[in-house]
């Protein structure tokens, strides 16, 4: 019998427990909505043939805003999911630490 891939396990976990960001969900959604508006604005800039540097400046701002959301979600994950796992079960904690390490490894490759 094979074990479920990590993505499948995580999808299952989402249905059985509240995500670590549950307490800050409204904040994250508000920030993402603002970023969505920034992206639409960038699209309008390109449509309107705006100066390259102006477009690139806005892309940089939107990218940084997304990075801030990612860091906030990471903080929520550490303080919620990882901490809860560490308190509950050493094997579950090890799984969460490995998952976090893989996630950070992918993020650093940006």
TrEMBL record:
InterPro entries: Metal_Tscrpt_repr (IPR003735), Metal_Tscrpt_repr_sf (IPR038390). Keywords: Copper. It comes from the Bacteria. Signal peptide: none annotated. GO terms for biological process: negative regulation of DNA-templated transcription. GO terms for molecular function: DNA binding; metal ion binding. Residues 1-24 are annotated as: Disordered. Belongs to the CsoR family. PANTHER family: COPPER-SENSING TRANSCRIPTIONAL REPRESSOR RICR, TRANSCRIPTIONAL REPRESSOR FRMR-RELATED. This is Transcriptional regulator.
């Amino acid at each position: 019998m094979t074990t479920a891939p990590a993505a499948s396990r995580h999808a299952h976990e989402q249905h059985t427990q509240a995500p670590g960001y549950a307490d800050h969900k409204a904040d994250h959604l508000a920030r993402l909505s603002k970023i969505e508006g920034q992206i639409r604005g960038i699209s309008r800039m390109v449509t309107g043939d705006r100066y390259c540097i102006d477009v690139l400046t806005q892309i940089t701002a939107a990218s940084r805003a997304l990075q801030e959301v990612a860091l906030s979600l990471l903080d929520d994950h550490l303080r919620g999911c990882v901490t809860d796992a560490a308190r509950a079960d050493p094997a579950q904690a090890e799984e969460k630490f490995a998952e976090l390490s893989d996630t950070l490894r992918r993020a650093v490759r940006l």
